[in-house]
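Good day; I would like, with your permission, to put a structural problem before you. What I wish to show you is a protein chain and, alongside it, a tokenised description of its three-dimensional fold. Here, with my thanks, is the record as I have it:
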Amino acid sequence: MIARRQRGMALIEALVAAVLLAIGLIGVIGLQARSQGALADAGMRAEAVIAANRLLGTMAVDQANLASYALAATGTPSARLQPWVDETRAHIPGAGMLVTVGAAADGRTRVAVTISWARKSGTAANAHSVVAYLAPAASS
């Protein structure tokens, strides 16, 4: 009699185990998709840091022409800045760039570089800003 009541219990246990396994796999797939997005954002942020540092290095060497490196958010880059803009957009497709150059109170030049991008169209833009103070070149 007890054996008769137990009939089909193994099948039910197997079905419950399969459902729990499916729920776990769906969760893992969701986490994988989110981690891919985070990895892509981190890659773009690293490219933005590299691009900003490359521009700041160029500006530090060419201090006589610092004003020509300024770029408004929707502005057209100068001839000096165009190669950097092209290279940055090659690494960060659709990047927006803003470069401000101004005098600081202590005689140094304040440079702010902001690079923005959207990983997917229709999503909120990410941005990375770097601010540096360039000291006047030492005269020999």
Observations:
- The chain has one domain: 2-134.
